[in-house]
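Sorry, explain these tokens?

___
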Amino acid sequence: VNSPTYLEDQHQLGDSLNQCPICGILFGKEIDPNRHINSCLDDFERHDSPKEKKDSITPEPVTTLATKTQNKAESSSSTALQLLPNRPTRGRYESLNDKETPSNNDQKKASSPSKRAKRKCPFYKWIQGIPFVVDAFSYGKIEKCEGYFLSHYHSDHYHGLSSSWKHGTIYCSKITANFLRQELDINKKYIVALPMDQDYALNSFVNVCLIDANHCPGSVLFLFKVFRSDGSTVRHLHTGDFRANPRMCLHPLIRQPENDILDTLYLDTTYLNGQYSFPAQEDVIKAACDLAERCVSGEQGKNKSKWLYGWLGKIDRGNSDDKMSTDSVTKKTNSKVLIIVGTYSIGKEKLFYHLAKRLNTKVYATPTKRRFITAQENKQLDSLLTDDPFKAQIHLFPMGQIQEERLSLYLKSLSPHFTSAIAFRPTGWTFKKSSPAISSLATAPLEQITSPPVDRIVVLNPQKSSIDTIKVYGVPYSEHSSFRELASFIASLDVRRIIPTVNVGNEVSRQKMGAILQRWQNEKKKKGIQLVSYPAEEHW
């Protein structure tokens, strides 16, 4: 797509979706799709600590008032993702039947609340031909499983883990291990924190390597290498949740043709849909930083049309991540403007880190949020934190509480130090491309999908507001791969078989994803495989 790429203002997805992309529930007339999707986002990725009650985000002066008005929303509940039935293992390291598919009756039984504890682990959570599973903790003790892998500490992946866990060894990154011990109090004898970027021998038949997944702190890809008795070797890559970038394809243990073909790719297909072609994280971060800088310096307020309709500007793709992180505001800022960033317990760190560096300010977070940040063992983040809300111009807020009424109460509690606020709600779900070119991406050639835009214009528009002192901006900042990034990742790798791991709850979704992936695979066979060109290793 060689024309400029536009990100239009926030769109309501209810007009185009009939199924929740997170939990798989079908929308009926009685369900508000947009409210349901936001609720799912908050439920699945909030990861509140089970050890204690949630922190109140409201400072002492209005704690009581905030408590009384705590919740008029968030009434919709999420439905657990319907999982495919188990594919049994024939032997210790024998291949599984590639053609096995679930029946509708099996799915109904698997999703029945009364039989939830008896569900079998679905085939796509098993690594092909070996007795290890990934993100499969909600099935109790799994027969013939010799090790449980956890890709990252998000609740929809670790669900089922608790301090009473005793079913087997949990393999994960060091940061994720910190969360398991700190938040779930899991006995350390069951946790093995694996090193990054190097092979680790699970036994004499299987090695595994952990690679940064560019999703959230501690998130990893799992690269399994299986040594067969006939002397051959097979390789399986499980992405967990990831934001694909060229650096993954350039990894010494993945890069091709230096390394063998990947026999199986277990793929995060969260955004395997042509409408989700949001810009690179680096571009979005720069747009948010530019907007925040304009607001705190007073430039944004000088022009009412800019304040009302948002910031519009071209993104300089030549700015590197390092330059962005060290570029701080040199002029005096207006301390009356508060910047609020919606986050989960873990995730969105890049956004608030770069905002803080650009504005040269501290970051305020609740004790629980600070505990999660400290567990990441990131000295750069630690140095930005403060427990005094008046010493920080950036405050972290629970994603589900980025609502005008709550933000207004919070701002009043900090008056007169702060008199206005802009809030960022960073997520990719409520943003989509709407041009005719984007609607045809689902059937476009792989070469067209992966072609970089000549230019990218990012528009950050505030939501409609009835409160003059509060402006809420939806930001297309996602920690999952966009449609174009998924295409670029697959186009860059020689893979025999791709297994989707997200949005697999119904037959229609599986067929649509399967058709896209198969077409891409066929195109690669005809035109060959080479790494898709990129402006920086951090993004396509």
